[in-house]
């Protein structure tokens, strides 16, 4: 069976303030999402993120302790491990050619600021979040971001994050 690739234009990444939702562990609704966007608590940063970003699960820590009743080796997942690292495009100093570059950079240009980074694939980038969309959310705190400038390449802003424990992977948005 042949697989289907998801095109880059079908990936979205948002930065959301923790107060955008009261409980990140329950299914998020499309109505609450729209309210968070309107209140400025959720920002679509997709167009500022360079394609080589990292946002997702890595290996999971496990425990292999056995009871006297186990008849085979067991491995119990303890918690999810994940990583987040975004290289953001930026405008040259004094330029405002692409406003989302400056907006995204300003969100992460501080230390220990809490965010949820959310991703959605398989829906046209920039389209409204609706019931049935599948999102993944990763709680992070900003770390030491820095400008990255190399000869002959784009001016970038390296936003680095520390995982802060909250993760909700592949949840379906409700009405």
Structure description:
With 175 residues, the chain is mainly beta. It has a single domain, classed as Factor Xa Inhibitor (Irregular). 10% of the residues lie in helices and 37% in strands. It contains two helices and ten strands, in the order βαβββββαββββ. It has helices at 30-38, 99-107; strands at 11-16, 42-44, 54-57, 61-63, 76-79, 82-89, 114-121, 134-142, 146-148, 156-172. The strands form two sheets. Strands 1, 2, 3, 6, 7, 8, 9 and 10 form an eight-stranded antiparallel beta sheet that branches. A hairpin with a 7-residue loop joins strand 9 (146-148) and strand 10 (156-172). It is globular. The two termini are 33 Å apart. The mean pLDDT is 88.
Major pleated sheet: 8 strands, antiparallel
What is the C-alpha radius of gyration, as a whole number of Å? 18 Å
Helix content: 10-25%
Instruction: State the end-to-end distance.
Output: 33 Å
CATH topology: Factor Xa Inhibitor
CATH architecture: Irregular
C-alpha geometry: globular
Tally of discrete structural domains? 1
Stretches where pLDDT is under 50 for at least 5 consecutive residues are none
Instruction: Indicate the structural class.
Output: mainly beta
Number of helices: 2
| Mean pLDDT over the full residue set | 88
Beta-strand portion reads 35-45%
* Strands, count: 10
């Amino acid at each position: 069976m042949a697989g289907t690739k998801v095109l880059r234009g079908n990936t979205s990444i948002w930065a959301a303030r923790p107060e955008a939702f009261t409980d990140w562990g329950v299914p998020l609704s499309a109505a609450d999402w729209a309210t968070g966007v309107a209140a400025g608590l959720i920002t679509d940063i997709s167009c500022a993120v360079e394609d080589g970003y990292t946002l997702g699960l890595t290996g999971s820590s496990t425990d292999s302790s056995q009871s006297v009743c186990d008849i085979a080796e067991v491995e119990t997942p303890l918690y999810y491990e994940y990583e987040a690292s975004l290289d953001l495009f930026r405008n040259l100093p004094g330029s405002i050619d692409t406003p989302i570059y400056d907006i995204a950079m300003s969100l992460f240009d501080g230390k220990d600021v809490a965010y949820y980074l959310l991703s959605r694939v398989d829906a046209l980038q920039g389209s409204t979040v609706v019931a049935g969309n599948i999102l993944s959310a990763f709680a992070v705190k900003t770390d030491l971001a820095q400008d990255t400038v190399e000869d002959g390449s784009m001016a970038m802003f390296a936003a680095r994050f520390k995982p802060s424990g909250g993760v909700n992977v592949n949840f379906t948005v409700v009405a």
